[in-house]
Amino acid sequence: MAHILITSGPTRQYIDPVRYMTNGSSGRMGASLAAAAIAAGHDVTIISGPVQVDYPIEARVIPVITTEEMLAACELEFPSCDGLIGVAAPCDYRPERVEGHKIAKTGQPITLHLIETPDVVATIGAKKKPQQWVVGFALETEDARFRALVKLEKKNCDLIVLNGPEAMNAAENQVEILDRAGTSVALLSGPKEEVAAGIMQAIQTRLMK
Amino acid sequence: MAHILITSGPTRQYIDPVRYMTNGSSGRMGASLAAAAIAAGHDVTIISGPVQVDYPIEARVIPVITTEEMLAACELEFPSCDGLIGVAAPCDYRPERVEGHKIAKTGQPITLHLIETPDVVATIGAKKKPQQWVVGFALETEDARFRALVKLEKKNCDLIVLNGPEAMNAAENQVEILDRAGTSVALLSGPKEEVAAGIMQAIQTRLMK
């Protein structure tokens, strides 16, 4: 019986009061992982960006909008949790400057200077205690396996789950779970519910005592 | 009995295969206007960006993603319609160049060059026949009334409906309808269903023979 923190869904980074950057993450994989964790007898807290998905009623859900808010909520919650599953797709760039008024069209191009947002999983990974674990996700379009392993190392994850952009806002998913040695722990494909159960199984076997 | 074209919801402009720019338009006002038009006995075709809202089953719905797709669908449908209600919030900037691969984080800022997308309502407004009408929406945060009237003129609308950013993804709305003379035709506030019925009433009284 563990207390598992799950980040889920996209975040938004506003350009002005109306426009923002985001991605198509639906929160379905987060909801499926929460359901799998609850079915396995664990407590679940979800920190979620704006989504339409229904999370299990047994889970405690903390809604956030931006990546900074998601990180702040994680830093507050993680110390009382056994592990983090970072399946959210936080917006990782934000405008250097957010306009206070809606940018009016002038017919001219505009230039947006973007800076990186803090990395939620890396920040938590750097702070985790020896008995805590962190599972990251990597969505890659190029050199997928290599980049996923670099992320696992950089974010101090115990396992990383690799998937492609076709997973976003889809009912099905295909993932590969990699461990710190670079070994492929599992290849899972099918409905997100089944894939989530397989990921939970790997976490229980490898990371929970 | 008229055939009314309604654009609804946001559009998305992709930066790379994962990230995009958009806004919080929910499609609720479009759905409410469609319901009001159908209740008044009209045929409705909706061209909608990605939304979660349920449109009336009596409406024909054409789903689109980008502003360019929304415009292309409008250009195809408008010639057989009596009027257009442009309540969508099309993304009005797009990256000059869309990256084919997910942009990898390097720790460094990035610069995004944005150009304006074509204006859907203005393009249709410029082509409308004498017996056709166009109703635009203006979402403004500054100099609202002045900017709305400039848009009405520039987009060749017959009426323009002015609202604020607080309308986005909300159940209620507060709007002012302005005509080509700059006269305030109606001030409406309340649940979107009621505001939509009021807007439909103004369209029927002023624009339909």
TrEMBL record, chains A, B:
GO MF term list: catalytic activity
Domain DNA/pantothenate metabolism flavoprotein C-terminal: 3-204
GO terms, biological process: coenzyme A biosynthetic process
SUPFAM superfamilies: CoaB-like
Domain of life: Bacteria
Protein name as annotated: Phosphopantothenoylcysteine decarboxylase
The organism of origin for this protein: Blastopirellula sediminis
